[in-house]
Amino acid sequence: MILKADSDSYFVFDLDDTLYSEIDFLKSAYKSITYEIAPGIHEQLFEVMIELFESGGNPFDYLIERFPEKKITKEKLLYLYRKHYPDISLREGVLEVLLRIKKKNGSVGIITDGRSVTQRNKIKALGIEKYIDKAVISEEFGFEKPEPSVFKIFMEEGNGKKYYYFGDNINKDFIAPRKLGWYCIGVSDKDNIRKQNLSDFSEAFLPHSFINSFTEIEII
């Protein structure tokens, strides 16, 4: 897919399961949590948590029951999950796309739902802060997708720009930017933490096109 980048173009990206694989964040969090709770056996605990997650069990309930003497709470585990500094990396091809956009004087944005500290830690861990012109995080902004205002904030400079949006969540990623005239690109969810059935959605919710990898994107 060939996309043109210049000073009149804005490329906006979802974060989780778009620029990186969210399952990697989950694994990173589980490793951090198990090391905090029981460093001597953290590797074994991590394996059990992953098995429970993949089978539909509750890893947090397991830890609470496994270590009653530590008086662990779900609130504490959620805090550790959200606040840890993650070990994650960009999907293949993402960095090359960002570099090419910036080289062509295009603008780069991020729209992501979630808590400020969690999402900003992800952005920092991915090493992409210096490429981002504007990041809209739901906790900071006060609204979540698909609220149109989170997309309109990128249009404050005027509607003369060409807008591209990359996302993965059919339920909330594309319906608003499509209405605003943005060109929407869906990133395949084959490796994503949440699976979707496209037949459950009307055309208004779907992107204009799909990619399986950012290596399919050529910026000119």
Structure report:
The mean pLDDT is 94. The N and C termini lie close together (10 Å). The protein contains nine helices and eight strands. α1 (22-37) packs across α4 and α2 (42-54) crosses α3 (59-66). It is of the alpha/beta class and 220 residues long. It is 37% helix and 15% strand. It has two domains: 2-21 and 89-219, Rossmann fold, CATH 3.40.50; 23-83. The radius of gyration is 19 Å and the shape is elongated.
Envelope shape: elongated
Helix % is 25-40%
**Secondary structure tally, helices:** 9
CATH evolutionary superfamily of the largest domain: HAD superfamily/HAD-like
Series of H and E elements:
EEHHHHHEHEHHEHEEE
Number of beta strands: 8
CATH architecture name of the largest domain: 3-Layer(aba) Sandwich
Biggest pleated sheet = 6 strands, parallel
Strand content: 15-25%
Q: Would you identify the regions where 5 or more consecutive residues have pLDDT less than 50?
A: none
Summarize model confidence as the mean pLDDT.
Answer: 94
Strand order of the largest sheet: 4-3-2-5-6-7
Which CATH top level class of the largest domain fits?
Alpha Beta
Number of domains: 2
Question: What's the topology here?
Answer:
Layout: E1 2-3, E2 9-13, H1 22-37, H2 42-54, H3 59-66, H4 74-83, H5 94-103, E3 107-112, H6 116-126, E4 134-137, H7 138-141, H8 149-152, E5 162-167, H9 175-179, E6 183-187, E7 209-211, E8 218-219
Parallel strand pairs: 1-8, 2-3, 2-5, 3-4, 5-6, 6-7
